[in-house]
Amino acid sequence: MACILIKDGRIIDPANKIDRIGSVYIADGKIASVTNEPAGFKADRVIDARNQIVCPGFIDLSTRLREPGQSRKATFASETAAAAAAGITTLCLQPDTIPVIDARAVAELIKDQAEKCGYRQILPIAALTQKLEGTELSAMLALKDAGCVAVSNANQPVKNLLVLRRAMEYAASHDLLFIYRPNDYWLANNGCVHEGAVSTRYGLPSIPDAAETIALAQCLELAELTGCRVHFGQLSSRRSVIKLHQAKKYGLAVSADVAIHQLHLTEDDIIPFDSAYHVQPPFRAKHDKASLREGLAGGTIDCICSDHQPHDLDAKLGAFPETEPGVSALETLLPLMLRLVAQEAITLEQGIAALTHKPAQILRLERGALTAGYSADVCIFDPEQEWKVNADNWLSQGINTPFWGVTFKGKVTHTLQTGVVI
Prior knowledge:
TIM Barrel; eight-stranded mixed β-sheet; 28% helix
Protein backbone atom coordinates (compact mmCIF):
# COMPACT_ATOMS: atom_id res chain seq x y z
CA MET A 1 0.00 0.00 0.00
CA ALA A 2 1.24 3.48 -0.92
CA CYS A 3 2.92 5.84 1.51
CA ILE A 4 1.24 9.26 1.48
CA LEU A 5 2.53 12.57 2.78
CA ILE A 6 -0.07 15.27 3.51
CA LYS A 7 2.08 18.37 3.58
CA ASP A 8 1.88 21.75 5.30
CA GLY A 9 -1.80 21.79 6.26
CA ARG A 10 -3.39 23.11 9.43
CA ILE A 11 -3.81 19.90 11.40
CA ILE A 12 -6.78 19.88 13.80
CA ASP A 13 -7.12 16.68 15.82
CA PRO A 14 -9.25 17.32 18.94
CA ALA A 15 -8.66 13.83 20.33
CA ASN A 16 -4.93 14.53 20.62
CA LYS A 17 -5.31 18.28 21.25
CA ILE A 18 -3.42 19.16 18.08
CA ASP A 19 -3.97 22.44 16.24
CA ARG A 20 -0.89 23.48 14.26
CA ILE A 21 0.65 23.66 10.81
CA GLY A 22 2.42 20.44 9.89
CA SER A 23 2.39 17.21 7.93
CA VAL A 24 0.70 13.84 8.29
CA TYR A 25 2.54 10.66 7.32
CA ILE A 26 0.56 7.60 6.20
CA ALA A 27 1.92 4.10 5.61
CA ASP A 28 0.18 0.75 5.05
CA GLY A 29 -3.25 2.33 5.45
CA LYS A 30 -2.49 3.66 8.93
CA ILE A 31 -1.33 6.91 10.49
CA ALA A 32 2.46 6.61 10.80
CA SER A 33 3.10 9.99 12.42
CA VAL A 34 1.87 13.55 12.76
CA THR A 35 4.38 16.43 12.27
CA ASN A 36 7.50 14.25 12.81
CA GLU A 37 8.77 12.33 9.76
CA PRO A 38 9.27 8.63 10.55
CA ALA A 39 12.70 7.14 9.92
CA GLY A 40 13.05 5.83 6.39
CA PHE A 41 9.71 7.24 5.24
CA LYS A 42 9.51 7.66 1.45
CA ALA A 43 6.29 9.12 0.06
CA ASP A 44 4.71 7.58 -3.04
CA ARG A 45 2.30 10.50 -3.18
CA VAL A 46 2.43 14.01 -1.77
CA ILE A 47 -0.75 16.02 -1.13
CA ASP A 48 -0.15 19.75 -0.76
CA ALA A 49 -2.54 20.93 1.99
CA ARG A 50 -1.38 24.54 2.29
CA ASN A 51 -4.20 26.87 3.33
CA GLN A 52 -6.36 23.84 4.06
CA ILE A 53 -7.44 22.01 7.18
CA VAL A 54 -6.42 18.40 7.78
CA CYS A 55 -8.53 16.49 10.31
CA PRO A 56 -9.80 12.96 10.97
CA GLY A 57 -12.46 11.65 8.60
CA PHE A 58 -16.01 12.31 9.74
CA ILE A 59 -18.19 9.64 11.39
CA ASP A 60 -21.92 9.97 10.69
CA LEU A 61 -24.08 8.32 13.33
CA SER A 62 -27.38 8.31 11.42
CA THR A 63 -27.81 7.68 7.70
CA ARG A 64 -30.19 5.96 5.32
CA LEU A 65 -28.68 4.83 2.03
CA ARG A 66 -31.98 3.34 0.75
CA GLU A 67 -30.37 0.01 0.00
CA PRO A 68 -31.31 -2.71 0.37
CA GLY A 69 -34.94 -2.26 -0.64
CA GLN A 70 -35.47 1.25 -2.04
CA SER A 71 -32.90 1.71 -4.79
CA ARG A 72 -35.33 3.96 -6.70
CA LYS A 73 -34.51 6.60 -4.05
CA ALA A 74 -30.77 6.08 -3.76
CA THR A 75 -28.04 3.44 -3.93
CA PHE A 76 -24.89 2.57 -2.03
CA ALA A 77 -22.90 3.83 -5.04
CA SER A 78 -24.57 7.24 -5.20
CA GLU A 79 -24.64 7.92 -1.46
CA THR A 80 -21.11 6.72 -0.69
CA ALA A 81 -19.88 8.99 -3.50
CA ALA A 82 -21.69 11.86 -1.76
CA ALA A 83 -20.20 10.82 1.60
CA ALA A 84 -16.68 10.67 0.19
CA ALA A 85 -17.10 14.14 -1.34
CA ALA A 86 -18.24 15.38 2.09
CA GLY A 87 -15.22 14.05 4.03
CA ILE A 88 -17.25 11.29 5.70
CA THR A 89 -15.29 8.06 6.12
CA THR A 90 -17.67 6.05 8.34
CA LEU A 91 -21.44 5.75 7.91
CA CYS A 92 -23.77 4.19 10.50
CA LEU A 93 -26.75 2.68 8.70
CA GLN A 94 -30.12 2.78 10.46
CA PRO A 95 -31.93 -0.59 10.64
CA ASP A 96 -35.10 0.38 8.74
CA THR A 97 -33.92 -1.08 5.46
CA ILE A 98 -36.01 -3.55 3.43
CA PRO A 99 -35.61 -6.18 4.76
CA VAL A 100 -34.96 -4.85 8.25
CA ILE A 101 -31.51 -5.47 9.79
CA ASP A 102 -32.86 -8.07 12.21
CA ALA A 103 -30.95 -11.10 10.91
CA ARG A 104 -27.30 -11.95 10.37
CA ALA A 105 -27.88 -12.45 6.63
CA VAL A 106 -29.02 -8.83 6.19
CA ALA A 107 -26.01 -7.46 8.08
CA GLU A 108 -23.70 -9.57 5.92
CA LEU A 109 -25.48 -8.41 2.75
CA ILE A 110 -24.78 -4.80 3.74
CA LYS A 111 -21.10 -5.55 4.29
CA ASP A 112 -20.93 -7.25 0.87
CA GLN A 113 -22.55 -4.27 -0.85
CA ALA A 114 -20.16 -1.90 0.92
CA GLU A 115 -17.22 -3.92 -0.43
CA LYS A 116 -18.63 -3.84 -3.95
CA CYS A 117 -19.01 -0.07 -4.00
CA GLY A 118 -15.50 0.46 -2.61
CA TYR A 119 -16.65 2.12 0.62
CA ARG A 120 -16.05 -0.48 3.30
CA GLN A 121 -16.83 1.48 6.44
CA ILE A 122 -20.60 1.20 6.45
CA LEU A 123 -21.56 0.05 9.93
CA PRO A 124 -25.02 -1.50 10.29
CA ILE A 125 -27.16 -0.73 13.33
CA ALA A 126 -29.19 -3.78 14.33
CA ALA A 127 -32.96 -3.72 14.82
CA LEU A 128 -33.95 -3.73 18.50
CA THR A 129 -37.10 -5.74 17.74
CA GLN A 130 -37.97 -8.16 14.95
CA LYS A 131 -39.13 -6.31 11.81
CA LEU A 132 -39.06 -3.16 13.98
CA GLU A 133 -42.58 -4.07 15.08
CA GLY A 134 -41.83 -3.28 18.73
CA THR A 135 -42.96 -6.59 20.22
CA GLU A 136 -40.42 -9.45 19.88
CA LEU A 137 -36.74 -8.81 20.62
CA SER A 138 -34.20 -9.42 17.87
CA ALA A 139 -31.22 -11.76 18.23
CA MET A 140 -28.96 -8.93 19.37
CA LEU A 141 -25.90 -11.03 20.21
CA ALA A 142 -25.90 -12.72 16.79
CA LEU A 143 -26.27 -9.33 15.13
CA LYS A 144 -23.37 -7.95 17.19
CA ASP A 145 -21.25 -10.90 16.06
CA ALA A 146 -22.24 -10.10 12.46
CA GLY A 147 -20.71 -6.63 12.79
CA CYS A 148 -23.57 -4.44 14.02
CA VAL A 149 -22.24 -1.61 16.20
CA ALA A 150 -25.45 -0.80 18.10
CA VAL A 151 -29.16 -1.59 18.31
CA SER A 152 -32.08 0.70 17.61
CA ASN A 153 -35.74 0.64 16.66
CA ALA A 154 -35.10 3.54 14.24
CA ASN A 155 -38.20 5.78 14.24
CA GLN A 156 -40.61 2.96 15.03
CA PRO A 157 -42.36 2.70 18.43
CA VAL A 158 -41.80 -0.05 20.97
CA LYS A 159 -45.10 -1.61 22.02
CA ASN A 160 -44.83 -0.78 25.71
CA LEU A 161 -42.33 0.07 28.44
CA LEU A 162 -41.94 -3.56 29.52
CA VAL A 163 -40.71 -4.52 26.05
CA LEU A 164 -38.38 -1.52 26.13
CA ARG A 165 -37.07 -2.54 29.55
CA ARG A 166 -36.40 -6.13 28.43
CA ALA A 167 -34.68 -4.88 25.26
CA MET A 168 -32.43 -2.56 27.26
CA GLU A 169 -31.59 -5.34 29.74
CA TYR A 170 -30.66 -7.63 26.83
CA ALA A 171 -28.53 -4.90 25.23
CA ALA A 172 -26.82 -4.16 28.56
CA SER A 173 -26.03 -7.84 29.15
CA HIS A 174 -24.08 -7.91 25.86
CA ASP A 175 -22.59 -4.41 26.29
CA LEU A 176 -24.42 -3.15 23.21
CA LEU A 177 -25.05 0.52 22.65
CA PHE A 178 -28.77 1.34 22.42
CA ILE A 179 -29.55 4.22 20.06
CA TYR A 180 -32.94 5.75 20.77
CA ARG A 181 -34.78 8.50 18.92
CA PRO A 182 -37.15 9.73 21.65
CA ASN A 183 -40.66 10.17 20.29
CA ASP A 184 -43.95 9.10 21.84
CA TYR A 185 -45.73 7.69 18.79
CA TRP A 186 -49.20 8.31 20.18
CA LEU A 187 -48.55 11.88 21.29
CA ALA A 188 -46.92 12.63 17.93
CA ASN A 189 -50.16 11.42 16.31
CA ASN A 190 -48.85 11.46 12.73
CA GLY A 191 -47.99 15.15 12.95
CA CYS A 192 -45.69 16.82 10.43
CA VAL A 193 -44.65 20.14 12.03
CA HIS A 194 -43.94 21.52 15.50
CA GLU A 195 -46.98 22.37 17.62
CA GLY A 196 -46.73 26.13 17.50
CA ALA A 197 -47.45 29.21 15.43
CA VAL A 198 -46.87 27.61 12.01
CA SER A 199 -49.08 24.58 12.66
CA THR A 200 -51.86 26.88 13.87
CA ARG A 201 -51.51 29.33 10.99
CA TYR A 202 -51.61 26.71 8.25
CA GLY A 203 -53.76 24.05 9.90
CA LEU A 204 -51.08 21.36 9.76
CA PRO A 205 -51.07 18.28 12.05
CA SER A 206 -48.55 19.00 14.79
CA ILE A 207 -46.12 17.29 17.16
CA PRO A 208 -45.66 18.81 20.65
CA ASP A 209 -42.17 18.85 22.09
CA ALA A 210 -43.63 16.77 24.94
CA ALA A 211 -43.72 13.80 22.53
CA GLU A 212 -39.92 13.91 22.64
CA THR A 213 -39.34 14.89 26.26
CA ILE A 214 -41.75 12.34 27.75
CA ALA A 215 -40.17 9.51 25.74
CA LEU A 216 -36.70 10.73 26.73
CA ALA A 217 -37.63 10.89 30.43
CA GLN A 218 -39.02 7.34 30.36
CA CYS A 219 -35.88 6.03 28.68
CA LEU A 220 -33.65 7.82 31.18
CA GLU A 221 -35.47 6.08 34.02
CA LEU A 222 -34.98 2.71 32.33
CA ALA A 223 -31.33 3.47 31.62
CA GLU A 224 -30.78 3.95 35.34
CA LEU A 225 -32.74 0.77 36.10
CA THR A 226 -31.02 -1.48 33.53
CA GLY A 227 -27.52 0.00 33.29
CA CYS A 228 -27.86 0.14 29.51
CA ARG A 229 -25.61 2.52 27.55
CA VAL A 230 -28.02 4.82 25.73
CA HIS A 231 -27.37 7.26 22.92
CA PHE A 232 -30.23 9.62 22.11
CA GLY A 233 -30.46 10.42 18.43
CA GLN A 234 -31.61 13.63 16.77
CA LEU A 235 -32.74 15.72 19.74
CA SER A 236 -34.79 18.78 18.82
CA SER A 237 -36.09 20.57 21.91
CA ARG A 238 -34.88 22.80 24.73
CA ARG A 239 -36.44 20.66 27.46
CA SER A 240 -34.69 17.56 26.12
CA VAL A 241 -31.34 19.33 26.49
CA ILE A 242 -32.22 20.24 30.09
CA LYS A 243 -33.22 16.65 30.97
CA LEU A 244 -30.09 15.25 29.35
CA HIS A 245 -27.89 17.73 31.20
CA GLN A 246 -29.42 16.65 34.51
CA ALA A 247 -28.95 12.94 33.68
CA LYS A 248 -25.29 13.44 32.83
CA LYS A 249 -24.79 15.49 35.99
CA TYR A 250 -25.96 12.53 38.05
CA GLY A 251 -23.70 10.06 36.27
CA LEU A 252 -25.94 8.22 33.80
CA ALA A 253 -24.07 6.58 30.88
CA VAL A 254 -25.92 8.54 28.21
CA SER A 255 -24.93 10.58 25.16
CA ALA A 256 -26.76 12.39 22.37
CA ASP A 257 -26.51 13.83 18.89
CA VAL A 258 -28.35 16.50 16.94
CA ALA A 259 -29.04 16.61 13.21
CA ILE A 260 -27.10 19.45 11.60
CA HIS A 261 -30.19 21.06 10.06
CA GLN A 262 -31.83 21.39 13.49
CA LEU A 263 -29.00 23.75 14.48
CA HIS A 264 -29.90 26.17 11.69
CA LEU A 265 -33.63 26.04 10.89
CA THR A 266 -36.77 26.62 12.96
CA GLU A 267 -40.49 26.53 12.29
CA ASP A 268 -40.21 30.18 11.23
CA ASP A 269 -37.97 29.19 8.29
CA ILE A 270 -40.50 26.78 6.80
CA ILE A 271 -41.73 27.85 3.39
CA PRO A 272 -45.46 27.05 3.54
CA PHE A 273 -46.26 23.60 2.13
CA ASP A 274 -42.69 23.07 0.79
CA SER A 275 -42.04 19.41 1.64
CA ALA A 276 -38.26 19.96 1.72
CA TYR A 277 -38.95 21.25 5.25
CA HIS A 278 -40.87 18.12 6.29
CA VAL A 279 -38.52 16.43 8.77
CA GLN A 280 -38.77 14.22 11.85
CA PRO A 281 -38.36 15.48 14.48
CA PRO A 282 -39.85 18.73 13.14
CA PHE A 283 -38.13 22.09 13.10
CA ARG A 284 -39.09 23.67 16.41
CA ALA A 285 -39.03 27.16 17.91
CA LYS A 286 -36.14 29.65 18.05
CA HIS A 287 -35.50 28.98 21.74
CA ASP A 288 -35.16 25.26 20.96
CA LYS A 289 -32.51 25.95 18.31
CA ALA A 290 -30.66 28.24 20.73
CA SER A 291 -30.68 25.54 23.44
CA LEU A 292 -29.44 22.88 21.00
CA ARG A 293 -26.53 25.12 20.09
CA GLU A 294 -25.76 25.82 23.74
CA GLY A 295 -26.01 22.10 24.52
CA LEU A 296 -23.51 21.30 21.77
CA ALA A 297 -21.09 24.03 22.84
CA GLY A 298 -21.35 22.99 26.51
CA GLY A 299 -20.93 19.25 25.92
CA THR A 300 -24.44 18.14 26.88
CA ILE A 301 -24.95 17.15 23.24
CA ASP A 302 -21.94 15.13 22.14
CA CYS A 303 -22.18 14.79 18.38
CA ILE A 304 -23.54 16.18 15.15
CA CYS A 305 -25.03 13.83 12.55
CA SER A 306 -26.45 14.37 9.07
CA ASP A 307 -29.59 12.23 9.59
CA HIS A 308 -29.31 11.72 5.84
CA GLN A 309 -32.57 10.54 4.25
CA PRO A 310 -32.59 10.80 0.44
CA HIS A 311 -35.97 10.61 -1.31
CA ASP A 312 -37.16 10.43 -4.89
CA LEU A 313 -39.46 13.12 -6.28
CA ASP A 314 -42.63 11.07 -5.74
CA ALA A 315 -41.97 10.86 -1.98
CA LYS A 316 -41.92 14.65 -1.70
CA LEU A 317 -44.90 15.41 -3.97
CA GLY A 318 -48.39 15.97 -2.63
CA ALA A 319 -49.87 17.70 0.40
CA PHE A 320 -47.25 18.48 3.09
CA PRO A 321 -48.58 15.96 5.69
CA GLU A 322 -48.71 13.20 3.07
CA THR A 323 -45.07 13.55 1.97
CA GLU A 324 -42.25 11.51 3.49
CA PRO A 325 -40.05 13.26 6.06
CA GLY A 326 -36.32 13.64 5.71
CA VAL A 327 -33.47 15.68 4.26
CA SER A 328 -30.65 14.66 1.93
CA ALA A 329 -27.86 15.97 4.11
CA LEU A 330 -24.44 14.38 3.62
CA GLU A 331 -23.00 17.10 1.43
CA THR A 332 -24.16 20.00 3.60
CA LEU A 333 -22.76 18.51 6.83
CA LEU A 334 -19.36 20.25 6.71
CA PRO A 335 -20.45 23.69 5.43
CA LEU A 336 -23.30 23.87 7.94
CA MET A 337 -20.87 23.00 10.72
CA LEU A 338 -18.53 25.74 9.47
CA ARG A 339 -21.46 28.17 9.42
CA LEU A 340 -21.98 27.44 13.15
CA VAL A 341 -18.32 28.35 13.70
CA ALA A 342 -18.69 31.55 11.67
CA GLN A 343 -21.73 32.47 13.78
CA GLU A 344 -19.64 31.81 16.94
CA ALA A 345 -22.06 29.18 18.21
CA ILE A 346 -19.15 26.71 18.60
CA THR A 347 -15.41 26.69 17.96
CA LEU A 348 -13.89 24.91 14.98
CA GLU A 349 -12.27 22.37 17.31
CA GLN A 350 -15.66 21.63 18.91
CA GLY A 351 -17.27 21.18 15.49
CA ILE A 352 -14.62 18.75 14.30
CA ALA A 353 -14.71 16.86 17.60
CA ALA A 354 -18.50 16.44 17.27
CA LEU A 355 -17.94 14.79 13.88
CA THR A 356 -14.87 12.69 14.67
CA HIS A 357 -13.55 11.44 17.99
CA LYS A 358 -16.76 11.93 20.01
CA PRO A 359 -18.85 9.59 17.81
CA ALA A 360 -15.86 7.21 17.74
CA GLN A 361 -15.81 7.19 21.56
CA ILE A 362 -19.54 6.48 21.73
CA LEU A 363 -19.21 3.58 19.27
CA ARG A 364 -15.93 2.45 20.92
CA LEU A 365 -14.04 2.53 17.63
CA GLU A 366 -10.34 3.21 17.10
CA ARG A 367 -11.15 5.96 14.64
CA GLY A 368 -11.84 9.67 14.66
CA ALA A 369 -8.27 10.64 15.53
CA LEU A 370 -4.90 11.05 13.83
CA THR A 371 -3.26 8.74 16.37
CA ALA A 372 -0.28 6.70 15.21
CA GLY A 373 -1.45 3.17 14.40
CA TYR A 374 -5.07 4.17 13.78
CA SER A 375 -6.67 3.65 10.40
CA ALA A 376 -5.75 6.53 8.08
CA ASP A 377 -9.21 8.08 7.76
CA VAL A 378 -8.51 11.70 6.87
CA CYS A 379 -10.48 14.70 5.60
CA ILE A 380 -8.78 17.67 3.93
CA PHE A 381 -10.94 20.71 3.27
CA ASP A 382 -10.64 24.31 2.17
CA PRO A 383 -12.64 26.39 4.68
CA GLU A 384 -12.78 29.41 2.33
CA GLN A 385 -13.83 27.74 -0.92
CA GLU A 386 -17.35 28.71 -1.97
CA TRP A 387 -19.74 26.40 -3.79
CA LYS A 388 -23.43 26.36 -4.60
CA VAL A 389 -25.88 23.55 -3.91
CA ASN A 390 -27.10 22.72 -7.40
CA ALA A 391 -27.20 19.90 -9.94
CA ASP A 392 -23.61 20.59 -11.02
CA ASN A 393 -22.20 20.00 -7.52
CA TRP A 394 -24.62 17.50 -5.95
CA LEU A 395 -23.81 13.77 -5.90
CA SER A 396 -26.58 12.28 -3.74
CA GLN A 397 -29.46 10.78 -5.66
CA GLY A 398 -31.82 12.61 -3.29
CA ILE A 399 -32.17 16.33 -3.97
CA ASN A 400 -34.60 16.86 -1.08
CA THR A 401 -32.85 19.63 0.82
CA PRO A 402 -34.08 23.02 2.06
CA PHE A 403 -30.63 24.38 1.12
CA TRP A 404 -30.98 23.91 -2.65
CA GLY A 405 -29.53 26.96 -4.40
CA VAL A 406 -27.69 28.18 -1.28
CA THR A 407 -24.02 29.19 -1.56
CA PHE A 408 -21.81 27.73 1.17
CA LYS A 409 -18.24 28.17 2.33
CA GLY A 410 -16.16 25.05 2.93
CA LYS A 411 -15.37 22.32 0.43
CA VAL A 412 -13.61 18.98 0.84
CA THR A 413 -10.64 18.50 -1.50
CA HIS A 414 -9.43 15.03 -0.41
CA THR A 415 -10.96 12.17 1.60
CA LEU A 416 -8.81 9.21 2.61
CA GLN A 417 -10.31 5.98 3.93
CA THR A 418 -7.82 3.48 5.37
CA GLY A 419 -5.05 5.30 3.52
CA VAL A 420 -6.76 5.29 0.12
CA VAL A 421 -7.92 8.51 -1.53
CA ILE A 422 -11.61 7.98 -2.27
